[in-house]
Each structure stands twice: as structure tokens, then as C-alpha cells.
Amino acid sequence: MESEFSWLLWGLPIAFVLGWMASRLDLRQLRIENRQAPKAYFRGLNFLLNEQQDQAIDAFIEAVRNDPDTSELHFALGNLFRRRGEYERAVRVHEHLLSRGDLTRADRQRAQHALALDFLKAGLLDRAEDALRKLEGSIYESQALLALLAIYERTRDWPRATEIARRLQARGEADFGPRLAHYLCEQAAQATSAEEAERLLREAMHVAPSSARPALELAALLRRAGDDHAALDCLTEVAQRVPRAAGLVAKPLADSALATGQLERAVRTLMDMQQVAPSLDVLEALVRLEQDSEKSRELYVRHLEREPSLVAATRWLAGERLEHEELHPLLQRSLEQAVKPLTRYRCAACGFEANQHFWQCPGCQAWDSYPARRVEEL
Description:
The chain is mostly helical. The chain is 71% helix and 1% strand.
């Protein structure tokens, strides 16, 4: 009995000492790990600032191993993977974050947004769409809607693009009226009936009164239906409402005038447009409607008095007689070749040039980036 009591007296202090030593070892190990994690983190930041991404990734991986519960390290690592084009690794990092049960609501939304960006960069549009849809109601909702809009434009899903544009317009983020009008015009081009196409175009005119495209496409639709009088009324109205689109309105206006015989009305409209802003396209439309060849040449001279133009000079010279008339065709061909680049349209966003006007640049995909004026007039 006494021996058992003596062992108990000796055992309690020994157990206490062993427990104290174990706690000291745990604390020491914890301090070592805590020192190692910040060192690896700051080493990674240093590599990143020096644009040494490979070394930065290695440092962040080491930091994550030392402290796997730190979400900031995961975000930094995932963003680095995405910037390097290692989208599969970036997806794994952000999906691992989302699988954690201790993640705060703000960090969960941030991880969901980062995952959506990973899918977008990787070109996995269906998975990106699903990830972006889950951000509804979060602080990233506006960014998610803009990304969805880009996806639907890229896939030419105009009904869904229209839906997103309406939501963004309702949020008051910016004026999406012109973009919405383009989506409605694209749907009108795909419509199965003329009635549906006309309804969509008139809706586009309502949501974006300052846009010329809906009226121009409505006039073309009316002309195809044989209603040239209504087309002329539509074109006359848009010429007055959107004067900057004069160059695009001029040719179809002249076509409708010739079809209906209302030449004087069209000439008055075109002359008013030319007085406000001289344009090569308006000039060519006036020349087409002018019955007198002498007056047509005077139109070129009047334009040259206001605006120096190699294109207009070339057109005027085509009807003149030269001293050495046998050289005229050779000279005319040379001038026509020289002015070809001047008659193109140029994107104001990326500089892409084309022989025809585009509502959406085929180079940079920007909307309304092509002025309705030729290169020579810019």
C-alpha cells in the first residue's frame, strides 16, 4: 500500500514535467512553422515583383504547405497559375477553396469569381457560364453579368445577350441602350418572318433613338417588301435624327428616291446633310441623282472648295478632257488605284480597316467603333 502511494507521489511530478516538455516542444514547432510561412510568403512576393513567376509559384506552394488554412495564399497561387496559362492548376486551387467548410461568405464569393475567370480564360464557356450564374446577388454580380454578356456575344446567343443587357440597363451601371439595339437587330436578321423582324427593329429604334442601324435595317426590310415610299420616309427621318450617320444613309436614300421618283425630296435632304458635314458618300449620292452631267461635275468642285479630297478630285477628273487624251485612261487607273486605301473604313478602337462599314469590328469586337466616314475624311 505504501509502495503504491509512493509511486503515485513520484508519478504526478513526472507526468507534469513530461506534459510541460511536450507543450514546449509543440509551441516551439508552432513558432518555427509560423516563421517559415511568412518567410515563404514574402519570398514569393519578392519573386513576383521581380517578374520571376516560376520562383514565386514555388515559394507560394511552400507557404501553402506550411499553412494550408490560409486562404490568401491560395488566392495568390491561383491567380499566378491563371496568369501563366496553367488554368487546370488554377481551377484545382479555387475548387479546393470552395470545398472548405470554414471559408467566410466573402471569401467563398471571391473564390467562385476566381473560378469563373479560370474557366473563361481556358475557353470553357459552358462551365464559366455556370460559375458566373452562381454569383447572382453577390458583390461580383455586375462583373459576372458583364462576363456573361461577353460569352453570349462570342457565341452569338442574342436572346440571352438581350436579357443580360436589359438587366444591366435596369441596374443603372451604364447606358446599354445602343448595345441592346444591336442585339435586337441581330435577332431581326435571324427572324423567320418579316413581321417579327419589323417588330424587333422598331423596338430597337425605341430603346436607342440615337442609333442609326435599326432605321437603316428597317428601311432595307421595307424596300425588300416593295414599300419604297415607307423606306424613303424612314431614311429621311434618320438622316435628320442622326446626322453623323449621313454617309451610311446617303446611298439607300438615293436608291429609294430613284425607285419612287421623288428625286427633288431626296436631293434637298442630301444637300442639307452636305451643308452640315461634307461627306464623300453624300456627294456620290447627289451625283447619282443629278441628271445634268455639268452640274454633277460642279458638285465635285464645290466639295473640293470646302474639303481637300483626292477621291473627289479623281472622280471629277474622270469626266474632264486632257490635252493628251490618249494618256487619260492610264492616269485615271493610277489615280483610282491610289485612292482605294482612302475609301476604306477604319476602326477607331484597333485601327482595323475594311472596304465596308461594320457595326461590330471583326478585329477587336468593339461595337460602333467604325465612324460612318472614309479614311480620307478622318
